[in-house]
Amino acid sequence: MKKLALLLLFLVISSCVSVKQHNKRLEIPIDATNLRKDVDFTRQKLEKLHPNLYWYISKEELNKKFDSLKLTIHKPLKPKEFYQKLAPVIAKIKEGHLRLYPYDKRLTKKEIKDLKNQKGLLNRYNFTIHHDRIFVKDNADKIPNMNVGTEILTIKDIPVKNLLHQYKPLVNSDGENQTFQKYSMERRWPSFFTAEYGILDSVKIDAKYQNELKTFYIYREKITKEEKKKTEKENKKQQRSETGKTKDYNIVTKSFNRDLQFATKDSLVAYMKIKTFSGTFSRKFYKQSFQQLKNSPAKYLILDVRDNLGGSLAEINNLYSYLVSDDFKFINDIEVTSRFSMLHANYINEFPDLLKPVAVLTYPLYLTGSLFSVKKKDERFYVRNNGIFAVRKPKKNNFKGKIYVLINGSSFSASSIISSKLKGEKRAFLVGEETGGANDGTVAGRYSTEKLPHSKLQLPIGLMLIQQNIEFTGTKKGVLPDHEIIPTLNEILQKKDIQLEWVMEDIKNNSVQK
């Protein structure tokens, strides 16, 4: 027991020292020569691992941006200052999945524990952005002074417009798409603010609500033992229930990630909302849902993937098999840069700490499998099709009625892929806003997280070019809706779903005509 206690004490002390050393580097300027080497390192890794680096930017233009950046580095910079220079160049590659991560401050175990017992600050609200202005969209906790529709004017005496202009170069999308940035900024600006000013206990806000100006502070409140116990009990109850598993209960949003309802009393219209393609128990959900649809009189299905940032490729492939009646090939062969590129993929780090020993033991098997999983064809390299994405048959209980798909600028990655495939095959009618993810595919799948040698910034690089089996548009844009509907600021704040309303009206008109 003594030895065990000493070992635990050693680990705690080592952890504290590690955190202290890590945070100390934040304030140490890095020599300009070494920073320029980090720029070269970034370029070399991108060229080696990214399978479609020059999709939205030419090689000459990207090289020019890297060279120009190096010319501006003529004095030592702190990691955060270097990040502010390099991140905008990475964003110019115009790949929504490709993002440089800053060298953030680490927290001690005590600090992490304390934060778990506190409510957030800015992230307790949902915001909407309109023309460089931030408005409170949701205030679920009913915190005073933050009514829905409140406009945030300044934070910590800094004008909101200045903050958004500062963060804008750090947010990118796929290709020439412009719809994703707004939604991405709505989610990420509190994180950018925290990264810059640290984890604050309170913050001063200047705001306006119904033409009345007000100044107040918002505070990081403690979670009482009663609140914590009640939340944990509710979460466990939902997660362990059969419904919670099948519909994928989310403890953060306290809602289901997927659900099926009937939008009309006669059950002629079904509404399926998928918030994320998490993959968790998804096969069971779709099997049950489409059997339910088959047993119902439903003639219309509304598939809502608005604000769905993507997820499991296997899940959308499975979902698609319930939406078509003919044999299909969902995606083309996945392209990689070389026979060895998959060896760079994150493997051990993707396992939880408790399972890392298992990851180490199975790593040789992964390496062998990766080498044999790549084939060469016409001087290009592709991941061998393992059967999941070969030509497939539709499910027996596939839906044969009319399908509407609701999309917006926050439909990204896997959401864009399935929307594009359904549109390309003329199987669905798309309503809403251009998706944030590209129409013609994406670079994602497996990642290789590269740590820059001197600044220690991290750059996860997608290793797989994933493209659905369709006729490509070549527009470098997102998936365009068949009928565009963009809600106004007032409609957003008033929770008016004008896109869904239009679909319901269109179904009503079609039914009357028949």
From TrEMBL:
GO cellular component: outer membrane-bounded periplasmic space
Record GO terms (molecular function): endopeptidase activity; serine-type peptidase activity
Domain Tail specific protease residues, every copy: 244-486
Matches recorded under PROSITE patterns: PROKAR_LIPOPROTEIN
Domain of life: Bacteria
Keywords noted in UniProt: Signal
GO biological process, one term: signal transduction
Cleavable signal peptide: 1-19
Protein name according to UniProt: Peptidase S41
Upper lineage: Bacteria, Pseudomonadati, Bacteroidota, Flavobacteriia, Flavobacteriales
